[in-house]
Amino acid sequence: MSRYTDLPKPVRAGIVIDPDRGESQRVIVLQFNPETLERSLAPQSSGAEQGDRTEALRLKGPAIETWKFTAELDASDQPDLPSEFGIHPQLATLEMLVNPTSGQLKTNQALARLGTLEITPVETPLTLFVWGAKRVMPVRLTELTITEEAFDADLNPYRATVGIGLRVLSVNDLPDGHRGSDLYLAYLSQKEQFAGSAAKGRLETLGLRNL
Question: Edge-to-edge strands of the sheet including 37-45?
Fold first, then answer.
């Protein structure tokens, strides 16, 4: 027996769709965690750009946070999933995050034919991005590029590289009491805990005795 069989399995990142539906929720697992990811945070300052000096240090809300990464999907790495269509189901699930359903479009078309002046925009399901147990956040897909790399005889894709862009949804984006709003607050609270555990540091390290 190999002496490496007792090594823990790596935690895989992924996307959870509609987590409030219990057992019917959909999970897209990234077979190979991205080697790198890019995160961007744009602070929402309050009035400093207008020259109001009393507002220079004030924030009017959480920073706008975006994530970008490249992931791989490979049907051969998912033996527990049906392979009749390769990774078509996983790719289609991602694509439906940026598309309304055909039923929703038909409903809107019917309302338009009846003369409805204002049609409510289609709401997509709550989507979470999971990057380990410490970073679970509500997101909206903002960018999706797919490069299909291997096919079967029926041209079903069996391997693909997927470029994904996400925007983290904060309490400024979601209604009070929304499940996603609560999850964002938990995500922000985790950041606070990490910040609180950071070493304090000493001024002498920067060549200063006092400020």
Answer: 26-29, 14-17, 127-130, 136-151, 157-168, 59-74, 37-45
Closest C-alpha among 15, 12, 19 to residue 97: 15
Q: What is the pLDDT along the chain (211 residues), one digit of tens a residue?
A: 445 455 566 778 899 988 766 554 688 888 778 889 999 999 988 765 566 777 778 888 999 999 999 988 888 776 666 678 889 988 999 999 999 889 988 988 898 888 876 777 888 889 999 998 899 999 999 999 999 999 989 999 999 999 999 999 999 999 988 999 999 999 999 999 999 888 888 888 888 888 8
User: Which residue shows structure tokens 């797919």?
Assistant: 146
Secondary structure element (H or E) that encloses residue 193, with its range: helix 179-196
Contact by Cβ (8 Å): 112, 119: yes
| C-alpha–C-alpha distance, residues 34 and 73, integer Å | 11
Total Cβ atoms within 10 A of residue 30: 19
CA-wise closest residue to 32 among 151, 159, 146, 150: 159
